[in-house]
């Protein structure tokens, strides 16, 4: 294992050899030569109950970090009783060949939550337009039914870009999202094209991987339905999801993939035969609680993460064919949407979540993302409705309440 030699708070550019140019949106990813990345020292960082200020940033790909000895980077600054003691926090993008970041934090008191304005003045750009997203769903479902490239599932996303008159406070948005006890909220600064950083803000319901000694857990979600305000109608929606053939097929692809990736590492691996119902404040999900015992307790959590990410819950299956469809159908770069964020310690333990129900916030702009798993039985109207529902929590946290 190589010694960590990555200690960067400025710009680093991943190699683009053999890769197509990234898609951009003019309001959030200017097609101009970016200024050097600003250092993130002093920026706030929130993950669940952990809140602090960044004191150091390390930048590399997930694969590079997975082969590094990170012990020298683990903080030992006298805050032994703080939640952040002995941990690095980090975030990695959807594209595992792109660079992510690990951060050292200094603990700070979590600020008080401030309610969102009831009527935020804004403009909206849809990427793609709703009709275009529906056409992509139909096109991909047709390819799956035709057996094109062996496709079984593709996760297609769409995006909403809100430009607001007033600046958006990313920490406050994350704190509002944290009111839902079924999710893990987060607010992560990202190096930007100007002096002001971008912020990845969201509330994820999905645990990609946790490791404590030899014990590992994963709780994938795939298959979703919008919750209802009426209790009996809400229960009926949940039961319909649990018995839906289409959603169970979509979910099974993810579970089988995680089983196949983790099995070589494990002495034992427990995978329930059927999914369970998981909930957030706004959505029902099919979930499976996977647990196992590693053959080697000192296996680095980032090595497991490198092999798992991205799962079919956010990409599809087979991976290469699904990524080709995502690249062809989505008119924007996913960037850190559908990536992973979490923490690790000096004992190779950690917990990493999927970056879902999120937005990238930059001063007066918020770009929201939501995706849906497409299989052969998918219908455009259903996937449009699912993604519309998934935008709901973030839109409310921003103070945007009108119907989509």
From TrEMBL:
The keyword Cell cycle does not apply. Keywords: Isomerase. The keyword Metal-binding does not apply. It comes from the Bacteria. GO terms for biological process: salicylic acid biosynthetic process. It holds the Pfam family Chorismate_bind. One of its GO terms (molecular function) is isochorismate synthase activity. Its EC number is 5.4.4.2. It catalyses: chorismate = isochorismate. Residues 1-37 are annotated as: Disordered. Residues 131-390 form the Chorismate-utilising enzyme C-terminal domain. InterPro entries: ADC_synthase, Chorismate_C, IsoChor_synthase. It is an enzyme of class 5 (isomerase). Belongs to the isochorismate synthase family. PANTHER family: ISOCHORISMATE SYNTHASE ENTC (PTHR42839). This is isochorismate synthase. The gene is dhbC.
């Amino acid at each position: 294992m190589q010694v960590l030699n990555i200690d960067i708070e400025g710009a680093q550019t991943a190699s683009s050899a053999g890769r197509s140019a990234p898609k951009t949106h003019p309001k959030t990813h200017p097609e101009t030569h970016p200024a050097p990345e600003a250092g993130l020292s002093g920026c706030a960082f929130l993950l669940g109950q952990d809140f602090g200020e960044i004191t150091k940033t390390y930048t590399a790909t997930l694969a590079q970090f997975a082969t590094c000895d990170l012990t020298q980077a683990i903080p030992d600054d006298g805050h032994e009783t703080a939640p952040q003691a002995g941990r690095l926090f980090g975030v990695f993008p959807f594209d595992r060949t792109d660079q992510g970041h690990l951060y050292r934090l200094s603990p700070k008191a979590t600020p008080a939550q401030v309610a969102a304005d009831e009527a935020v003045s804004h403009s909206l750009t849809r990427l793609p337009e709703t009709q275009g997203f529906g056409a992509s769903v139909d096109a991909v479902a047709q390819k799956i039914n035709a057996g094109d490239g062996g496709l079984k599932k593709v996760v297609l996303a769409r995006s909403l870009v809100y430009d607001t008159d007033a600046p958006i406070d990313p920490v406050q948005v994350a704190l509002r999202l944290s009111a839902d006890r079924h999710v893990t909220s987060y607010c992560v600064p990202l190096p930007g094209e100007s002096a002001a950083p971008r912020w990845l803000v969201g509330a994820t319901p999905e645990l990609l991987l946790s490791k404590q000694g030899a014990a590992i857990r994963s709780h994938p979600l795939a298959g979703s339905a919008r919750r209802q305000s009426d209790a009996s109608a809400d229960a009926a929606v949940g039961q319909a999801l649990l018995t839906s053939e289409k959603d169970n097929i979509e979910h099974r692809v993810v579970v089988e993939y995680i089983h196949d990736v983790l099995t070589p590492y494990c002495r034992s691996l427990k995978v329930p035969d059927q999914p369970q119902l998981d909930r957030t404040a706004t959505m029902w999900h099919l979930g499976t609680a996977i647990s196992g015992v590693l053959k080697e307790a000192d296996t680095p959590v980032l090595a497991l993460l490198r092999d798992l990410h991205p799962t079919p819950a956010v990409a599809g299956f087979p991976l290469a064919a699904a990524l080709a469809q995502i690249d062809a159908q989505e008119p924007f770069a996913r960037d850190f949407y559908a990536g992973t964020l979490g923490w690790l310690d000096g004992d190779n333990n950690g917990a990493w979540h999927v970056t879902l129900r999120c937005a990238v916030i930059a001063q007066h702009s918020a770009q929201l993302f939501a995706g849906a798993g497409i299989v052969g039985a998918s219908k455009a109207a259903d996937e449009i409705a699912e993604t519309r529902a998934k935008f709901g929590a973030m839109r409310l946290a921003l103070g945007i309440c009108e119907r989509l």
